[in-house]
């Protein structure tokens, strides 16, 4: 058994699918997973970017059926465990069973940070199937710490082995991560995890703060391959933790090599912080709001960024897209 | 007079020239400088990547004479002050006088972190010319904090208004930045500055730690345009500081716009953390060592990264390139 201070889950084959239009092929997944396995990465997540069952007109169609991709990853892994993401409402229990049957050993059940209660059935099923189980609280910046603790406790009592704080919009500042991890660490018995996005160039900073405060599970994506500005860059994280004498059990040189030789060629273009990803992190809103806000901005002759910032202040969530036009209209009246 | 908590110097037109093979044109510099000026950026550095006089076979030839680029920037700035970098031994007092005569108002005199004594003449000249003057201590990770303080004090006593800690290799970890800034803040009277590189994905983290510990001058580069993995991304830094209620006096939306519309099209390819820039930050060595190490690695059949890590441990500096072959040879013997 490898001794690790920090357990890294590689998400390039799941979150990264957002960055390449869900176009992973079996060949790509096998090459990446095999190299990650050989570098001793302990967990490799493979799913549509929006989790099992995400392939759709709404979320983007996968080029290859994700069950085939999961099988492909499982077939080449000697030590690594393959994980899947599931958002109740998008993915189903049947899909979770199918993935487990194909060899997935880690289930990450993800909900909006206020909706942990919808994860009960799926967390319990994953445990019954004998899978390691993570509760994944998305858009964690949107609620005060007390609310986050309350929701995390729900996932803990459903049976999750680990509860993750997920900074989906890359909106959390380091002191906000510190407060949240500290509170969870104090009030939960299970492992605490952290998943960063780099919209404010803080993915590495926040991941290190989380580890400092006691998070023992963190996510990385090779070459930052993930939604928005991408995630914490795994090969860099492994280098930094090595410099800080925190062991990940991962072979640093192999990670550097696979990033350059196997993952980089898959990227359509390098991940960087663009105007769009920056404003999402700054405002703390869903990426799906961007296009709606731009359309409303055009219609009402206001700045789309002012709309997004206002939506962030009002903590508007998915499904409330009609609010975008309301906000644009209000801003237009104010500016007269 | 604008009230600022943090004074940002934009370095994309100097450090960024490394990233585009020193190919800036007058038109590009005018467009970028004008937009930065309109966004209320207080200082804009314009020089060859290696400072005044850097255009050479050794450091890379500038496509356009840097004095013409300085004039071009000065001609479009209404409030921003144009700065120049000068490394004694590369640039000369005559070049500094010429730049001042063309309208440069900020002189940044840069030396290796152990060689502050060679900056005396240039710092004194800059002050005599009435320029704001910065002492710039490069490769600051290579010495213990006491040594850094000693060298910074030299620059202070020569008359520098501000002394910068320069993390040239992007090798400093946040706690190392904290210790260094704190010590300088305690033991110097002048302003403390910090210049980051992103080789370990820590440019933003380190810049925030520096500000937290009392640094009031920091560098940024729009779209990360700088040597290695680039610098702290200015438009992102301004966003983050805004979220933290630290004023920079800079117009955030104008910064976002100019990054996307004016600077991004100049990049030959987006800045990212590649295998090469990562190993330089991990080992903490000069970028010029990379090619030498790869050649020696090939000759002695060892891993170039082991050579670089060993060079970092031995704190080998520029001019000692013959050590690279020695280290490779030693490693080859050990591995037999």
Automatic annotation (TrEMBL), chains A, B:
<dbReference type="InterPro" id="IPR017629">
    <property type="entry name" value="4OH_2_O-val_aldolase"/>
</dbReference>
<feature type="active site" description="Proton acceptor">
    <location>
        <position position="18"/>
    </location>
</feature>
<feature type="site" description="Transition state stabilizer">
    <location>
        <position position="14"/>
    </location>
</feature>
<comment type="similarity">
    <text>Belongs to the 4-hydroxy-2-oxovalerate aldolase family.</text>
</comment>
<dbReference type="InterPro" id="IPR035685">
    <property type="entry name" value="DRE_TIM_HOA"/>
</dbReference>
<keyword id="KW-0058">Aromatic hydrocarbons catabolism</keyword>
<keyword id="KW-0464">Manganese</keyword>
<dbReference type="InterPro" id="IPR000891">
    <property type="entry name" value="PYR_CT"/>
</dbReference>
<dbReference type="InterPro" id="IPR013785">
    <property type="entry name" value="Aldolase_TIM"/>
</dbReference>
<feature type="binding site">
    <location>
        <position position="197"/>
    </location>
    <ligand>
        <name>Mn(2+)</name>
    </ligand>
</feature>
<feature type="domain" description="Pyruvate carboxyltransferase">
    <location>
        <begin position="6"/>
        <end position="256"/>
    </location>
</feature>
<feature type="binding site">
    <location>
        <position position="195"/>
    </location>
    <ligand>
        <name>substrate</name>
    </ligand>
</feature>
<dbReference type="InterPro" id="IPR050073">
    <property type="entry name" value="2-IPM_HCS-like"/>
</dbReference>
<dbReference type="Pfam" id="PF07836">
    <property type="entry name" value="DmpG_comm"/>
</dbReference>
<keyword id="KW-0479">Metal-binding</keyword>
<feature type="binding site">
    <location>
        <position position="15"/>
    </location>
    <ligand>
        <name>Mn(2+)</name>
    </ligand>
</feature>
<dbReference type="InterPro" id="IPR012425">
    <property type="entry name" value="DmpG_comm"/>
</dbReference>
<feature type="binding site">
    <location>
        <position position="286"/>
    </location>
    <ligand>
        <name>substrate</name>
    </ligand>
</feature>
<dbReference type="Pfam" id="PF00682">
    <property type="entry name" value="HMGL-like"/>
</dbReference>
<feature type="binding site">
    <location>
        <begin position="14"/>
        <end position="15"/>
    </location>
    <ligand>
        <name>substrate</name>
    </ligand>
</feature>
<feature type="binding site">
    <location>
        <position position="195"/>
    </location>
    <ligand>
        <name>Mn(2+)</name>
    </ligand>
</feature>
<feature type="binding site">
    <location>
        <position position="168"/>
    </location>
    <ligand>
        <name>substrate</name>
    </ligand>
</feature>
<protein>
    <recommendedName>
        <fullName>4-hydroxy-2-oxovalerate aldolase</fullName>
        <ecNumber>4.1.3.39</ecNumber>
    </recommendedName>
</protein>
<dbReference type="GO" id="GO:0008701">
    <property type="term" value="F:4-hydroxy-2-oxovalerate aldolase activity"/>
</dbReference>
<keyword id="KW-0456">Lyase</keyword>
